[in-house]
Amino acid sequence: MPYYVIITFIHTNFYDYKVVFFNLLGSLFSRMCVASGRRTVTTAAAKEIQDTKIPSFRSMESYPPEHDTNDLNQIYTVPETITNLLIPGVPDEMKKQIKIFNEFGILIRKPAIELISFLEQTDYTKCINKYVLYGKLGVGKTITLLHLVHYGFVKNFVIVYLPWVANWFRFPKKVAQSVLNPNQLDLPEDVAKWLKFFKCLNEMTLSQLDLKVSKEYTWSQRESTKCGDSLFSLIDFGIQRTKFASGVLCALLDEIKMASTSGKCKTLVVIDGFNAFTSERTLVRDDNRVYATPERISITSAFFDIVNYNWCNGAVILTVDTRANKEKKESIYPTYLLGKKGFEHLDPFLPICVENYSTEEFETILKYYQDRKWIREISSQGQKEWEILCNKNPREVWNFSKPL
């Protein structure tokens, strides 16, 4: 619907003209932004007119599908509504930074731009493409994943985002014998928490799609999920009946795969630290106090299955990391970290290296910290010393900034 603005000037004072004009212009832009569903940076004068210059290190485009090489080395701000949805999947240190800076700023980097370009050009009628991010500790693989999750959210993908797999296998809140498969172990409370996260992240998309359960699932003699029930009813059952949460997760991933293959939706699978699924053992113990292998954890087979090639209308983005697999520390490369079984299961995939900051990225981050009043102005010599001390590693850049 077109917008028309009629402005009548009565006073002769030029300052009054500007106040009236910019107030109306700001109101008009606000309505257009709400109508389009995209966040646009606008500046309007309410009481006094002043020139507001956007810092050079900030990107005016906060809509990830529009990010390209022109936005490299700039910070974009994730809208607050989306930040609130992503927070459960954000690392603890990044949560602190978001709270301190009062915003979620993401540096637009080359790996994210490459992935967005690939996803934009994908033929989703073919079998899924797989991408594996790798790199040294602290280079920003997880933040790159969050950039891609934001992309998937605004593109109306169903997002299966599993943050840091190793936490499930090292610090499980509760371990129980599976009620559906006695030979396996369940992590009921952790899975129920993830189901809540999945529902919150995808609530808007699933409400629009109105997906139905394709078959009946029997959980006990009295409890079942009927064919034709909404996908929300399946998810809510797993949240309320944590005893069956792992079984619900397996069923949910199967339903999403079938819905994607039939063309009812598109799905983006994002898993951080996937090589934890291929490790030799976990810290999960059975009733005999024996450490279980990942294969004995019921959810492992479900996530292995959803990264298989037997479906379409989707994409898979994973990371591998030396912290996710205790036995393998000598190399950062996917072939080594995934092991023979994991590599053969994922192959073929496109490996994408995430590296330390470039000089331009490092300078952008320092400007951002100064803008957020986290650090003071530093001399060029001090900046050079900082660069040498942290080797432009993103995690170390943040850690070195804390005492300053």
Question: Which SSEs are present, and which pair or pack?
Answer:
Layout lengths: L13 H23 L38 E4 L1 H7 L5 H10 L2 E4 L2 H12 L7 E6 L6 H14 L3 E5 L3 H5 L5 E2 L7 E2 L1 H22 L7 E2 L5 E2 L5 H10 L4 H17 L5 E5 L26 H9 L7 E6 L14 H13 L3 E4 L5 H13 L8 H11 L3 H8 L3
Parallel strand pairs: 3-10, 3-11, 4-9, 9-10
Antiparallel strand pairs: 1-2, 5-6, 7-8
Helix pairs in contact: 4-5, 7-8, 8-9, 9-10, 13-14
Please give a quick description of this structure:
This protein has 404 residues and is of the alpha/beta class. It has helices at 14-36, 80-86, 92-101, 110-121, 141-154, 166-170, 188-209, 231-240, 245-261, 298-306, 334-346, 359-371, 380-390, 394-401; strands spanning 75-78, 104-107, 129-134, 158-162, 176-177, 185-186, 217-218, 224-225, 267-271, 314-319, 350-353.
**Beta-strand residue percentage:** 5-15%
User: Which stretches of 5+ consecutive residues score pLDDT under 50?
Assistant: 1-51
What structural class results from the helix and strand content? alpha/beta
Strand/helix succession: HEHHEHEHEHEEHEEHHEHEHEHHH
Q: Helicity range of the residues? A: 40-55%
Radius of gyration: 24 Å
